[in-house]
Amino acid sequence: MDTDSYSSTDSEIVHQVVSGDVNAFARLLKRYQAHVVGIVKKHVPFDQVEEVAQDVFVRVYQSLPTFKGNDRFKQWLSTITIRTCYDFWRKQYRHREIPLSSLSDRHQLWLEEVTSKSSSQFFSERDSQEEAKEILDWALDRLSPEDRMVLELVYLEGYSIKEAANLLGWTSVNVKVRSFRARKKLHKLIEDMS
Amino acid sequence: MTTSKHQRQALRELLRRAYREKEKVEVGDQWQEEVMRRIGELGEIEVSPSYLVMLEQLVWRLVPVTCILIIGLTVLLSSFDFISGYDVIQFTMNSTEQISLNQFLGL
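^ Those are the sequences you sent over. The predicted structure of the assembly is below.
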C-alpha cells in the first residue's frame, strides 16, 4: 500500500519525518503496524510481540535517513522487521532468559503416531495441532538464532533462498548451507525424541 | 528411529500448519501511543552529512586560515634578504670542492 486517507506516498512521509516533522511518523505507524505485527508474531513468543514490534518501529525511525526514496518502503520495512526478530533471538540466546521447554510422553506418542499416519488424518483433531506447536517450539528453542531464523523463513514459511538472504542480509550461499544444516538438526532432534 | 522421506514430508506439513496457526495479536491505540512516546524521546532525526559534504565544509573552514598564512608568509619573506636555493647550493659547493651543480645532480 502506498497511499492512505492522507494521500501521501511513503516516500513523501519519510521526507517529512526526516525534515523534522516527527508526528508524521504516526501515519507510517498506522499504515504498517498490522504488517509488522503479522511478521513479528511468527518469529517471537506471543508475550514479546508488542515489545519487539515497538523496537521495529523505533529502529525504522532511526534508519529513515538511509531509506532511498526509490526503494519499496514495505520491502525495506520487512527487512528491518526480520532483522529485529533475529536480534531478539540473539539476545535471548546470549542470556537464555527463557527456560527451555520440555516434552512429555504425550508428545512422544504424538510423534510416533505422526510417522505412522498421514498428516491429513492427523490434523483433523485440534489437540494434535497443539502438540505440533509445542514440539515445534521445543525444537526451535534448541537451535541457534541463525538456524532458527533460516528454518522459519525457508522451511516453514516457504521463502526462496534469495528472498531469505535479502531479508536477513546474508549471502545466498550462507542461507542455503545453513538452511540445509538447520533442517538436518531439526529432523535429528525430532527423531531422537521419538 | 529414522524416518523415510515421505514421513519427513508429512511431518514438515504438520509443522508448517502448526507454525501458521499462531495466536492472533492485535495492537491498539495504547501501543501506538507508546511507540510515538519512544519516538518523541529520540527527538528529530539527525541526518549525518555525506563524506563529500563534510569535505566541502572542511575546505571552506580552512580557507580563511590558509589566506592568513599566505599573507603572513609573504610579509615575512619580503622582510628578509631573499637568497635563492641555487645560490645556497653554489655557495656550499664552492666552499667545499670544485664540483659543479650538474655533476652533483648526476647530469
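Chain A has ten helices and no strands. Chain A touches chain B through 46 residues (CB under 8 Å).

Shout if you want it in another format.
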